[in-house]
Each structure stands twice: as structure tokens, then as C-alpha cells.
Design goal:
Layout: E1 2-3, E2 16-20, H1 25-30, H2 41-48, H3 57-66, E3 69-73, E4 75-79, E5 89-93, H4 97-101, E6 107-111, H5 113-127, E7 133-137, H6 149-165
Parallel strand pairs: 2-3, 2-6, 6-7
Antiparallel strand pairs: 1-4, 4-5
Helix pairs in contact: 2-6
């Protein structure tokens, strides 16, 4: 069983939460979210917020926090071979409620369908009385090759900007 290696990123001003499923092998190796060189997550966010260079963990964290974005993953521990979500078994979930309680989260975006499915499976009871909106975004993973960078950027940009305006 592999344990999620890093903490959530958020603060009391975070308005949206982006949840993935579980860190990839490369992300665990580099000890930060979406660290596979082919993952488009950081390229998309840096373009949305007109940030020229975000290479370090500190720069990425600052980008998120100054734009009121929180990130984390649904899974705390699981059995997984490689990085594919389809290989995830024996799930134990992260504490998402503490992020919501200690921030201003109004909307949760899921970076791909698997994160959403896992969240619903394990958190449905906790969300019944909650007014937080949930929405699936197309995955930024390189495995989601059907979405070009431009198409992915445009979709994410519209959704993220709209959520931050509300």
C-alpha cells in the first residue's frame, strides 16, 4: 500500500479546490503534484494566470494560493501499479472536510472522471448538506491525449475563471 506523500495546498482564502485521484509515480518521485513532465496541469494554470515561469514547488504553491486555489487528491492510501487510475485498488481516502471547513471553498473541480467517481463513492454522505458545487474537468494527464493543449486550456480557463468570479 502506498501513502500519499504530500499535504494539501490551501489557505483560508481558497475558493476552489481541484482534486486529483492519487499522485503519479513521477509526482511521487519529484514530491509534488502533477510533476510528470508531460502533464499539462501547471502549463494550463500558468497560462490562465499569465505567470511566465513556475518551475519550483514554491512558485507553484504561490501561484495557487495567490489565486485562491486549493489542490489535493481524493486518495490517502491505495495499492497501485504504475500511475494509471484504472490500477487503483484498496482505497483509503483523504480528509477533504478539513480543507472545506478551514477555507472558503465554493466549488470542487475534479481533474478527471476517476477522481470524481472516487470522491462520490467515499464522500457522498459528507456532501449531502453541503452547498459546494462539484464539476469534472477533463484530465490534464498525458494519458488524455484526445484533448489538445489548446482545447484543454480553453475549457479549464473558462471554468476556473468563472468559479473565481462568483
Amino acid at each position: 500500500m502506498i501513502t500519499h506523500p504530500f499535504k494539501p495546498i490551501y489557505n483560508e482564502n481558497s475558493k476552489i479546490l481541484i482534486l486529483g485521484s492519487f499522485p503519479s509515480v513521477k509526482s511521487r518521485e519529484y514530491n509534488f503534484y502533477y510533476s510528470h513532465p508531460q502533464n499539462r496541469f501547471w502549463k494550463i494554470l500558468s497560462k490562465i494566470f499569465n505567470e511566465e515561469k513556475i518551475d519550483t514547488i514554491e512558485q507553484k504553491t504561490n501561484l495557487l494560493l495567490k489565486n485562491n486555489i486549493a489542490i489535493y487528491d481524493v486518495i490517502m492510501k491505495c495499492d497501485i501499479e504504475g500511475s494509471l487510475d484504472s490500477n487503483i485498488k484498496n482505497v483509503k481516502v483523504n480528509d477533504i472536510d478539513s480543507i472545506i471547513t478551514n477555507s472558503k471553498i465554493e466549488k470542487i473541480f475534479f481533474n478527471g472522471k476517476k477522481a470524481y467517481e472516487l470522491f462520490l463513492k467515499y464522500n457522498k454522505n459528507n456532501m449531502n448538506n453541503n452547498k459546494i458545487k462539484l464539476e469534472v474537468l477533463p484530465s490534464t494527464s498525458p494519458a488524455n491525449a484526445i484533448w489538445s493543449f489548446d482545447k484543454l486550456y480553453n475549457y479549464w480557463n473558462d471554468k476556473i475563471i468563472d468559479a473565481l468570479k462568483s
